[in-house]
Give the backbone structure.
Amino acid sequence: MTSSAASTDEGRLVHLGIGNFARAHTLHATAVAGSWSVAVFTGRSAAMADALNAQGCDYGLIVRGAEDDAVEIIDVIDEAHPAADVDALVRLIADPFTAVVTLTITEKGYSAGSDPAESAVARLALGLKARREAGVEEPIALVSCDNLTGNGEVLREALVALLDEETRTWFEGHVDVVSTMVDRITPSADEGASVLVAERTGFADAIPVVTEPFSEWVIQDAFRGRRPAWEKADGVQLVEDVELHELRKLRLLNGAHTLMAYAGQVAGVERIDQAIAHSEVRALVNALWDEARSTLPLPPEQLDAYTASLEERFRNPRLADQLIRIAADGTAKLPVRALPVIAERGGPDQAPGEVAAVAAWTAWVTDRVRAGHEVQDPQAAAIAAAAPIQDATERVTALLALLGVDSADPLVAAVVAEEQRLPRP
Ligand code: CS2
C-alpha cells in the first residue's frame, strides 16, 4: 500500500464495492489506462480490504480461455479500505485530486436506504457534502458499473434524494453521473487459482481472480473532468448513449444467465456450461432469446452475432461458472432482466421463455427453503416466509409480490402452470 499518489499520476479514482468483478473488469481497464492513483472500498464485508492489504494490494488475474490460462499480476490499487471506514471515504472524495468514483455495489446497492452504515450511496452522499464544504471546484464523475438499465440515472436519483439542499444545488454544477454497460463473466475463484498464480508468477496470492477472455465496457462520454484513458483497454468504447448496449446485454446475457441459474439447478446441474448443454434448459434459453431480441431495435445480423458469442462464452468448459453465484439476489435481478420483456411483449402468453425464468426462480427458492437452505437475497426473510405456503397460487402470489407483481397479474397463473413444466432431474 502506497500512502500517497505518485507525482506523475493524473488523478485519483475511488472504487466502491471491490470484489471479483471489479478486479477483473473496471480495475483491470484502469490498470491498462495507467497513471491513476486508485483507492478501493469493500462492500459489507471487510475481508477483501484485509486480504488486499496483506499482499501489498496486488492480485493475480487468471484469464481462463476454453483452452488455456493467461496469468497477470495487477498492480493498480494504492489503498484498500473497509466500507466502514467512512472517514477515509469522506476525506478522499473531498480531495480535489479525486476525479472519478466507480461503483460495483450490485443491483440491490442502489436501494439500500439512507443509513451510511448500510448504504454505499449514503456514504458517497457524505463525501460529496464534504467536497462542497471544502470548496472543490474540479468536477468529479460518478460511474455506475452495475447491471441496471440507465444505471447512471438510477445512481443520480438514489443519491440526490439523500443530499441536503445546498449540496443538491452544487451537485448539478460539479458532478457528472455516467451510465456504463459492463461485461466480463467472473466466476468465484476455484481452489487451484492461488497455486496457478504462484506457479506462473511466483506471487503468493490469497485472493486471485478468475475471469473469461471477453471483456466489454461501454461508457457514456459525459465527463467534464479528468478520467483514466480507459479506451486503451480492449473492449472499451466511449459512446453518446449507452442504453441500447445496456438493454442488449441485460436482456440477452443476464436474462439467459438468470434463467439458467434457476432452471439449471431445478434440473439438477450446477454450472453454466452444463446448463447451456442441457437440451431442455437450452430450449428455454432459445425461447427467452427470441422474446428478448424482439424488444431490441438492433439489426438481426448483429443480434445473431451477439447470441452466437454468448453461446461460446457460456460453453467455455474451463470457466466453471457456478449457477449458485448467479442465483443470488433474484428479487433485485428479475425485475430488471425478465419483467420488462414480459410487459413489452404484451403479457406472459407472449413471453413463455421469460415466464420460465420467473417460474424457475419461484420453484428454486421454494425447493431451497424447504430443504433448509438459505437463499441469498435482500428479501431473504420474506422468501423464507412465503416458500412453505402449501397452496401453489398463494405461494407464487406471495413470492411475485417481492418482485412488485400484483396479485391480479396474469403472470401469477402463468408461473404456477410453468413451475409444473420445468425440467427436473
Ligand atoms: C451474472 C453477472 O451474477 C449475475 O447475475 O449474470 O454477474 C454476469 O456474469 C455479468 O454481468 C457478466 O458481465
